[in-house]
Protein: Cytochrome P450
Organism: Collybia nuda
Amino acid sequence: MPSVISNIVSLGAADCNVLLSFFKQYYLVLGAVGSLGYFAHRLWLWPYVFSPLRSVPGPPLGHILFGQSPTIVRSESGIPQREWVKQYGPVIRIVGPVGIERLLFMRPEALHQILVKQWLEHPRPGFLRHILGLVTGYGLLTVTGDDHKHMRKAMNPAFSIPNLMAQTHMYYDSIYGLLEIMKSAIDAEEDPKKGKEFLVYDWMSKVTLDIICETAFGYKADSLHDPHNELAEAYELLLSLQSGPNLARLILWMSVPGVPRLLSSEWGYTHRHWLGKVPFVGPISSLIEAMYRIRRMSASMLRDKMNDSSVATSDTFAKRDIMSLLVRARKADLDKDKSVYAMSDQAMMDQVLTFLGAGHETTATGLSWTLWLLANDPDSQKKLREEVTPIFSENSRPDYRTLKEMSWLDCVVMESLRVLPPVPLTVRTTNKTDHIDGVLVPKGTLITIPIRVVNTWKEVWGEDAEQFNPNRWLNLPKNYHPVFSMLSFITGPHACIGKTMAIMEMKAVLAALITNFEFEPAYAGQVTKPAAAITMKPTDGMPLRVRRI
Ligand code: HEM
């Protein structure tokens, strides 16, 4: 060894020149060999030979470059994972692009560790937070640790039961607007008895947008009657971009350092047309455009609230929308103690935008799938009509408590959210190396939270786990765990803050629709496919035949 070192040290300038010209001549070859070596390591040696996770059961590596991602992106959300769990058991490893590994855990103890006990060590990964920030605003979905604790504490009062009770009446103007539109469209048909085909998802999207605008901002978007409403158009543009391939593009771009900041900056907006011409980036430029328009409108709504003296009052007639509550709470906190944590205008706007982004499409998707399931299960639909009709004939705007007490309505909504959860899966990462369910999980490993797979796990829900059967909520299976057997809103400190609001809103819309209409598949043998995106919205807008009762 010392002789090698002395040989190198003794190299003269001439020898160095010879070496340099050798590298110059062959640098392309050397570069190619190096890259090949790197890819061989990432794509093959790492997952097969070196990875500490190589012995965890799971599907084969899949595509040489992209692993199992093409199968996941092309399939219905959660279905490949469900088949793999059936085949390989409750802990599996899935290899994605360039050998990146993901683990999936099913057992309650593992989910408790990831989502509850060690939630700080298992945050949402950076790329997911950036995507959510870009499409919903930099609110609760994008922060973690102490920032998250502060924000969540400030937001909780807006989602308290008393506040939700006071908000329930806000749903009904939009709901009755929808009923009138549907009734008139059916009556205008040549033979109204035959009913009319509606693209159910589109109408659910409009009614939930109108409701969330009212509850979040106190703003009447009325997208039901005004398809050119600026906010509604911007959200429509945003939703039209949801697809598996677009999501894959976003994940790729958002993983590149600096890109998320660039895309959400003023520069990103000014250069969006130019960005639109770059292959692979096109849809992202439309996304920037949509978010910019949404932000501009919500900033003006916030300004109006700050200047509206009735927002500042604290009596029972004060405005109950979330933004008014936040403006009021901030004022009260600052009046008490000037040094207290108080949200800036920008942070407040981001929060409210997050509620619009997180609460609009999810609820629309949940409602659409519930109507689909009822259209295919006439007995459950009839039973629901028998429960809701007498209540609606007595009071056309049932309050929070009445909606909560309708037991078959509750079974139908819970069962629909179980079999077809609007958010079919989510992702976490690991901040430290630790054991989970007996597997040593290295720091930085991605973890899939398999919402749809857990919700339909035969070990808990029995042989008919994948079937829609609202009756099961009247007699839950013995393996049912109240927290970890149904993850549609996940659990722990990052659980959905809008869970109760979403369930109540779904109940109000559904009960009013079922009292007034009958739903059937649009044609015999109809199948409809959920998108493989962040939410499981139906890809065809979900046509259903609707008749008046
Ligand atoms: C059926 C409707 C809904 C479903 C299925 C749903 C589902 C979920 C899920 C699965 C998460 C966790 C995501 C993750 O950790 O990666 C989540 C988080 C969240 N949801 Fe919902 N959601 C619904 C409606 C709503 C509504 C109506 C709102 C607000 C008005 C809302 C606001 C939020 C917020 C702010 C978070 C982030 C919570 C945190 O990290 O602290 N969601 N939701």
